[in-house]
Design goal:
182 residues; single chain; 7-stranded parallel beta sheet; 8 helices; globular; alpha/beta; 17% strand; binds adenosine monophosphate
């Protein structure tokens, strides 16, 4: 496993939910920066995505945004990032996220976040990478998803290791500690 210097964060682009989600996303960004880790993420300035970036930037961290071209023209992207990369499409974007990062964190989010979690879990299963995937289970947000994944393993559509390899943390402190849990 390579040393972790950049961490990719997947999280909701929506800011319409309870403010506690944005507050914790901001705290995660700040904690990553304070731990000396750069944040790689989807480049948006909205919702939890904007909050993670702002948390890291305000704690003097580096934030690398990766946006697919078609999305860039449609939605606001963060203007204050350390680096912004524009990719041709969503597929190229995930490839670059994977290339630049040595760990993946999944915060609360919607369908896009779930897509990213499942895609990177698939890459682990296929041994395309061995980077840790961490779930930030803020206020038990992901309990039902983890329960579903255990059901999938019980029914033998994946292994229990596929599920147990996920690192699940309930607080920001646990999350940062779990990054170095080898
Ligand atoms: P969702 O969970 O459906 O809000 O989707 C959020 C995830 O999908 C993020 O981690 C992003 O990588 C990607 N994504 C969705 N919407 C945007 C957006 N407006 N700008 C950049 N990335 C986005």
């Amino acid at each position: 496993m390579s040393k972790i210097s950049r961490v990719c964060v997947f999280c909701g682009a929506s800011g319409q939910g309870d403010k506690k989600y944005q507050e914790q996303a901001y705290a995660v960004g700040a904690a990553l920066a304070q731990a000396g880790l750069a944040v790689v993420y989807g480049g948006s300035d909205t919702g939890l995505m904007g909050a993670v970036a702002n948390g890291a930037l305000e704690a003097k961290g580096k934030v690398i945004g990766i946006l697919p071209e078609d999305l860039k023209t449609q939605q606001g992207w963060h203007q204050g990032l350390t680096e912004t990369h524009i990719t041709k499409n969503f597929f190229e974007r995930k490839k670059l996220m994977a290339k630049l990062s040595q760990a993946f964190i999944v915060l609360p989010g919607g369908i896009g976040t779930a897509d990213e979690l499942f895609e990177f879990m698939t890459y682990t299963q296929l041994e395309y990478h061995d980077h840790p995937i961490l779930i930030f289970n803020q206020d038990n947000f992901y309990d039902k998803l983890i329960e579903f994944l255990r059901h999938v393993a019980d029914e033998k559509f994946c292994s229990h290791d596929d599920v147990n390899n996920l690192r699940v943390a309930s607080t920001v402190e646990e999350l940062i500690a779990a990054l170095h849990n080898d």
